[in-house]
Amino acid sequence: MNAPQDIILKPVITERSMDDLQAGKYTFKVAKDANKSEIKKAVETLFGVQVAKVNTLNVRGRAKRVGRFMGKTADWKKAIITLKADSKTIEFFEGMV
């Protein structure tokens, strides 16, 4: 079992993820081999909140071009965390709304 810091890699800061904050949904980039139960435990231990639901999706890397050479960015996994109604918020996102 990995440490919570190895499962939750970084927050995803986009317009859509900021709009979802009012609904109690937080978006994170997570380890590709992590499952929903591991992600739930990691978020609860790192931030001290109560998680209601975890949705995950695999994001395919984009094709990039540098001059005449084609390449591809890495594939990654995204997790959308929904908190329970009586749970406190994650302090990291409080100033961003």
Give a structural overview:
The chain is an alpha+beta fold and 97 residues long. It contains three helices and six strands. The chain has helices at residues 4-7, 15-19, 36-47; strands spanning 8-11, 25-30, 51-59, 63-66, 69-72, 76-83. The protein has a four-stranded antiparallel sheet. β4 and β5 (69-72) form a beta hairpin. The chain is globular, with a radius of gyration of 15 Å. The model has no long low-confidence stretch (mean pLDDT 93).
Structural key phrases:
97 residues; four-stranded antiparallel beta sheet; two-stranded antiparallel sheet; 3 helices; globular
Class computed from helices, strands and strand pairing = alpha+beta
Compute the number of helices. 3
C-alpha geometry: globular
Number of strands: 6
Mean pLDDT: 93
Element pattern in H and E: HEHEHEEEE
The helix content, as a percent range, equals 10-25%
The fraction of residues in strands falls at: 35-45%
Low-confidence stretches: none
Radius of gyration using CA atoms only: 15 Å
Q: Describe the main β-sheet briefly.
A: 4 strands, antiparallel
Instruction: Compute the separation of the termini in Å.
Output: 34 Å
Strand order of the largest sheet: 1-2-6-3
